Automatic annotation (TrEMBL):
Keyword Transmembrane helix tagged: no
Alphabetically ordered keywords of this record: Cell adhesion, Cell junction, Cell projection
InterPro entries, per the entry: Band_41_domain, FERM_2, FERM_central, FERM_CS, Kindlin/fermitin, Kindlin_2_N, PH-like_dom_sf, PH_domain
Name the UniProt record assigns to this protein: FERM1 protein
Residue spans crossing the bilayer: none
Gene Ontology terms: biological process: cell-matrix adhesion; integrin-mediated signaling pathway
Protein location: Cell junction; Cell projection
PROSITE patterns on file: FERM_1, PH_DOMAIN
PANTHER family given in the database record: FERMITIN 2-RELATED, FERMITIN FAMILY HOMOLOG 1
Length: 678
């Protein structure tokens, strides 16, 4: 019998569904509650009524209609807004999730479905031994990108689970937090610094990681490639609009998986979302470096990012005949010599300069005599109604501007024109085999972009002028400490492209067991016969044949960074006042408005000139204010505007990282910059 006091004037019945595995116990329970009962008290009342002896600590209430978790156990039902019509599910916060990694391996592990995605990704990365989790996020594949696979599945059934790495036995604790010294540079490395192979003395440096040595090597090494048939079935974007579809599925970092409709055992993609790879260290980052390399490799193979034929052969030589070969050979297990370590450190130094990671020493910025370049170059100006004109001039590069004169003698007077390169787009226009060394400059003007080409005579001249242009576009001068490393990086990439045909190297392409269609994109497999591709890849391989495994991966990443489209995430938008759709490219330091029909940049806006940005959530419009009273506003058509808002805030958050600071993340700052005020 229930006493009348229990019913009270303000009590009411609440239906709760319990998600448990005990078939003999009912799953729906009716509880008599009052509005002043707190969530913790409701849990206690429920567990007492279920009468099942088990650990309920991971359980919490999920409010089905509102699509939210009730995690604040001290809040009352009234404060939460829970009334008699509410449908609450008492379920586990950690559930199984399948993740497709950049190397196309699928892992199955337990993830928090109640934590914000930012925190969930951090926990996932701790399991997988990937540092700097803030650079990654979770991506849900759109329906368009899955169409090909669905067509294929109708014809042939493939085993879904055979390639899954199961890490479900060791779930990550929801309360896990790394100690301040988690990534200390003085710790004993768990990987060979050059090969990236797991050291036998220890298995992992994360004490809670379920990775065994064997599983760790699966993530840290590149294994035999997909078949040409499998490559042909992959989603390959044909247009800029197709590329925009690839970025429409990023999950909201400020909400939980469950709040975004992700169900237990769903499959998501774990990808590097932000292209600012900070503090790469081969001693601790074997998995991270390999996964970045793999993401770059698949982006090139699927033509997600464009590259020239010359560049494609370099990528093929590095990944095909080098990384794949070394990964499978005993050479990959050898320990590094001092010289190899030095080479890797140099490559890493160049990599960080390119990505603007860390606070490089600015001592050189303080000197009064800023270096300048002066040389004979050719100026090319495209004409709309006539042939382009090519004329030689005397060019002087100083600060962030290029001036050109009729000849060297007239350089003391007024220049014919002075081009300010701050905020411009710099695009390489190079063909080493044809001795073409060009620099394409897209300089912002009032009505769009002014297109200018500079033609250099040789590699050295090109490297010096290209490095100066790249720095000037970011507002830096040649006095900056990153100038010389930038020059060396450009020369290094040109050297890889500059191969000569060796009869010994290509005498018998048929004797190799290489499948060239696994290493180049579909466009080139249609253009050339396999024998031709093998011969050309072997030619290109001569310049990279002496590299160690990790150096080859770093060079591959470096070459990927050198591509004009590197780091650009595309979205279809409609700018305020415009009658047609445009493409918006979001990069780590700028936004680019692009003509969706031609692919030509229209305007560039740098984050360094941005004063503020916000979102009008009612009309889903992003508004941004820049210096000099420049303001833009647009609505996003290919994705939710929250994704672009988070991209901008995320890149600004990542720019605050420093090697000097503690490596624990300021999660609150990330959510302030990316969360928005919906």
């Amino acid at each position: 019998m229930i006493s009348s006091n229990d019913y009270g004037s303000h009590s009411w019945e609440l239906l709760v569904t319990v998600d448990h595995q005990h078939e003999e116990v009912q799953k729906e329970l009716l509880l008599q509650v009052t509005g002043d009962l707190h969530i913790g008290g409701l849990m206690l009342k429920l567990v007492e009524q279920i009468k099942i002896s088990q650990d309920w600590s991971d359980y919490a209430f999920w409010w089905e209609q509102k699509k939210c978790w009730l995690l604040k156990t001290h809040w009352t039902l009234d404060k939460c807004g829970v009334q008699a019509d509410a449908k609450l599910i008492f379920t586990t916060q950690h559930k199984m999730l399948r993740l497709r990694l950049p190397n196309m391996k699928t892992v199955r592990l337990k993830v928090s479905f109640s934590s914000m995605v930012f925190k969930a990704v951090s926990d996932i990365c701790k399991i997988l031994n990937i540092r700097r989790s803030e650079e990654l996020s979770l991506l849900k594949q759109s329906g368009d990108t899955l169409k090909k696979k669905k067509k294929k599945d109708k014809n042939s059934k493939e085993p879904v689970t055979e390639d899954i790495l199961n890490l479900c036995n060791s779930p990550v604790s929801s309360g896990l937090s790394g100690s301040p010294g988690l990534y200390s540079k003085t710790m004993t490395p768990i990987y060979d610094p050059v090969t990236g192979s797991p050291a036998s003395s220890t298995i992992t440096w994360f004490s809670d990681s379920p990775l065994t040595e064997q599983k760790c090597s699966i993530l840290a090494f590149s294994y035999p490639n997909y078949s040409p048939e499998a490559l042909a079935e992959m989603y390959q974007p044909r247009t800029l609009a197709d590329k925009a579809k690839l970025n429409s599925g990023w999950l909201d970092s400020s909400r939980s998986l469950m709040e975004q409709g992700i169900l237990e055992d769903d499959q998501l993609l774990l990808r590097f979302k932000y292209y600012t790879f900070f503090d790469l260290n081969p001693k601790y980052d074997a998995v991270r470096i390999n996964q970045i390399y793999e993401q770059a490799r698949w982006a090139i193979l699927s033509e997600e990012i464009d590259c020239t034929e010359e560049e494609m052969l370099i990528f093929a030589a590095l990944q095909a005949y080098h990384v794949s070969k070394l990964s499978l050979s005993s050479e990959a297990q050898d320990f590094a010599s001092e010289s190899e370590v030095d080479e890797v450190e140099a490559a890493l130094s160049n990599l960080e300069v390119t990505l603007e990671g860390g606070n490089a020493s600015n001592i050189l910025e303080d000197i009064t005599d800023i270096p300048k370049l002066a040389d004979n170059l050719r100026l090319v100006r495209p004409r709309k109604l006539s042939l382009k004109t090519i004329k030689p001039y005397w060019f002087v590069f100083k600060d962030t501007s290029v001036s050109y004169f009729k000849n060297k003698e007239s350089a003391q007077g007024e220049p014919i024109e002075k081009l300010n390169l701050k905020g411009c787009e710099v695009v390489p226009d190079v063909n080493v085999a044809a001795k073409k060394f060009g620099i394409k400059l897209l300089i912002p003007v009032a009505d769009g972009m002014n297109e200018v080409y500079l033609r250099c005579d040789n590699e050295d001249q090109y490297a010096r002028w290209m490095a100066a242009c790249v720095l000037a576009s970011k507002g830096k001068t040649m006095a900056d400490s990153s100038y010389n490393p930038e020059v060396q990086k450009i020369l290094s990439f040109l050297k890889m492209k500059n191969w000569t045909i060796s009869p010994q190297a290509v005498s018998d392409p048929e004797s190799t067991d290489m499948k060239p269609e696994c290493f180049v994109s579909l466009r080139y497999t249609k253009k050339y016969k396999p024998k031709q591709l093998v011969a050309r890849i072997l030619e290109a391989h001569q310049n990279v044949s002496q590299m160690s495994l990790v150096e080859a991966k770093l060079r591959f990443i470096q070459a990927w960074q050198s591509l004009p489209e590197f780091g650009l995430s595309y979205y279809i938008v409609r700018f305020r006042g415009s009658k047609k759709d445009d493409l918006l490219g979001v990069s780590y330091n700028r936004l680019i408005r692009i003509d969706i029909a031609t692919g030509d940049p229209i305007t560039t806006w740098r984050f360094s000139n941005m004063k503020q940005w916000n979102v009008n959530w009612e009309i889903r419009q992003v508004a941004i204010e820049f210096d000099q009273n420049v303001s833009i506003a647009f609505t996003c058509l290919s994705a939710d505007c929250k994704i672009i808002h988070e991209y901008i805030g995320g890149y600004i958050f990542l720019s605050t990282r420093s090697k000097d600071q503690n490596e624990t993340l300021d999660e609150d700052l990330f959510h302030k910059l990316t969360g928005g005020q919906e």
